[in-house]
Amino acid sequence: TPNLGRIDAEPCRSYSETYWEARDRFLTAATAAGAELTSLEVVRGGKDSPSYTMDVAVLRGSGDEKSGLVVHSSGVHGVEGYSGSAVQVAFLRHAASNPESIRRGGDGASSPGPFPTIVLVHAVNPYGMAHYRRFNENNVDLNRNALPERRWSEVKARDPNVAGYDDFDGLFNPPRPPTPWDATASFLLRAVLNIARHGFLNLKRALVAGQYHNPRGVFYGGGGLE
């Protein structure tokens, strides 16, 4: 397994401010590293709207039984993808400038040993990343969407309030866009009242469990595999 040690990279060279900048940096770094690239259109563009793409870079390993496989993804939660993208870009730049560190494990070995195939998946949720939101173009939280087929009928049939989500619906899903008052003092007041009524542990449970019955609500897991 590669032991890359410490990779020194200036944050400003790896972090991006937009999805488009992050994608360009990823593709450029992957090409320089000699990776195999595949682009998958997640959201098809229209006359007045761009397309959004998940890109996959593959650095082939030694190919023997002990080489293994390493998969690193970024952007399942959209806006969080900027950090994951920076890690991927920094790694690819290191691989491009120090290819032997991948093959020799970065530990000074005189000859290459088994080393894994490395798969980097960039922007699993490109729409959310581009729009600085956690959820995708269908308001689905992809982290709650990867269910086996048999589980979908179960989550759809269960009590919508099984984890207490509906108890906090007014707090989670305001009926109108927030004003500065709503986003500060009003929110804190409503949060305190909800916690006093239902309990903090129940609030945490409702947040973690998410929901599968309100497509317009936050933490929506979807109605099927995205």
Automatic annotation (TrEMBL):
<dbReference type="Pfam" id="PF10994">
    <property type="entry name" value="DUF2817"/>
</dbReference>
<dbReference type="InterPro" id="IPR021259">
    <property type="entry name" value="DUF2817"/>
</dbReference>
<protein>
    <recommendedName>
        <fullName>Peptidase M14 carboxypeptidase A domain-containing protein</fullName>
    </recommendedName>
</protein>
